[in-house]
Amino acid sequence: MKKEFRDMLKERGRSEMPAVLLVAAECAPLAKTGGLADVVGTLPKDLKKLGIDARVIVPYHRVIKEKYGNNVEHMFHFFAKLGWRCEYAGIEKLELDGVIIYLVDNERYFGDRIYLGEQAEGEQYAFFQRAVLDAIPNLDFTPDVVHCNDWHTAMIPMLGKTQYAGGIQERLRYLLTIHNIAYQGKFGFDYVQDLLEVEDKYNTPEFMELNGCADFLKAGCVFADRINTVSPSYANEIKMPYYAEGLEGILNARSAQLTGIINGIDKKVYNPHTDPVLPARYDRGHLKGKAQCKRALQEQMGLELREDVPLVAMVTRMTEQKGFDLVMHVLDDLMAGEEVQFVLLGTGDARFENFMREAENRWKGRLCAYIGYNEAVSHLVYAGSDFFLMPSRFEPCGLSQMIAMRYGSLPIVRETGGLRDTVQPYNRFNGEGNGFSFANFDAWEMRATIHNALQCYRNPEIMQGLIGRAMQADFGFENSAMEYARTYIWML
Ligand code: ADP
Prior knowledge:
Blueprint: H1 3-11, E1 20-23, H2 35-49, E2 54-59, H3 62-68, E3 73-82, E4 85-96, E5 99-105, H4 118-135, E6 145-149, H5 156-163, H6 168-171, E7 173-178, E8 186-187, H7 189-196, E9 209-210, E10 213-215, H8 216-223, E11 226-229, H9 232-237, H10 241-244, H11 248-253, E12 258-260, H12 288-301, E13 311-318, H13 324-337, E14 341-348, H14 350-362, E15 367-371, H15 375-384, E16 387-390, H16 400-406, E17 410-414, H17 417-422, E18 436-438, H18 443-457, H19 460-472, H20 477-491
Parallel strand pairs: 1-2, 1-6, 2-5, 6-7, 7-11, 11-12, 13-14, 13-16, 14-15, 16-17, 17-18
Antiparallel strand pairs: 3-4, 4-5, 8-10, 9-10
Bound molecules: adenosine-5'-diphosphate (ADP).
């Protein structure tokens, strides 16, 4: 055990590290729709290296059953009370990469989709949270800390502390991690009361009421012992109305318990030196392979095969969060005014998808819009591009910019949240930096920053320095795991 942890534990009169149960809606590689799954999948492995017994509990989604059904062990089952409903809850156990994962089985709630959407998603995850709380005393391990993630698990601290008098759930410590404050789980109070039997007195602004709704995430912010979000800058931003989506009051009130811990990426999966998907491999000292990747990308995307033209790429969900309004505003000006190629890999809102399809027709041979989700293609885009554009309106952490940097694609980002914390803008006076950034959510500011980046492309010496520093940046998960370990110990 590290001396730092030993000392911290001693102050709390303990000798062993805390045991932690991570609760989430998804966990990679079992079931994944976004960055949350990556965190829940990777963090326990690194916590284990620090001596923390970290286990995970997630719904037994059908995608998991289909792939891992033969490897799970049935532990026990019971009937969870969901208001007037009585629902089967099976607890299955799976060991993956040395991490124990408990799965909550109920085919009605965890069938087709990870997220049912709309009102049905409220019942789906009310059930999950009730089942998790009821199952805790009967698991083959006793956690000290329950680590909840996002609104789908944010009612757990409140339910645990208010509805389990005398039970272990009442005494547990609860950490809530906010991965994206834009999603809060808002429902009518009657509906939530019907499912979870929440007392009337909690339907007030001091507790879970927000704009006339019962708000799961707000309940978590009120009742969790500690709150964290996924970058230090985002932790500050969500205390301001522009970013907080109505939760600025409670987050300011609880700012002493609110911290930011930046996520990491899996350095084994994202490694241009060993990546099996790439047509050629490379590292910081040998970039020849990157030029081959660029050629392969140009070939695959139907672009002119030119090494001398800078290639700007995006890999993204196509939503307002990701700054697509800015891209729409200046894309034609960029294509007309600069010698540049542009590749987009993404899916999302129809209006953005259609705009990009039409742009591809206007700029055939120089711009390609690959509308779809494709993991393998994404690796080639990171490896084959010179610049990676990510002009987010808000960005809790962002993994794509870190992946891009690891593959030597220089990020061009807006200074917000995790983008601000991971990209150091190029300073032409002292030559420092590992990317490019702009401050305001403004299309022409973004356009000017892209112009500056493309100017640098003409200078191989500057580019080499930037690429070297970008590829060298340490975005491993070990640092985040250390921070989480400290947080768990503080909570004891
Ligand atoms: P968010 O979780 O908000 O979507 P992040 O940057 O944190 O954004 O993580 C996005 C992850 O999803 C990255 O690993 C990125 O490569 C991947 N990704 C996003 N869109 C696509 C796509 N269309 N095809 C393949 N991978 C994608």
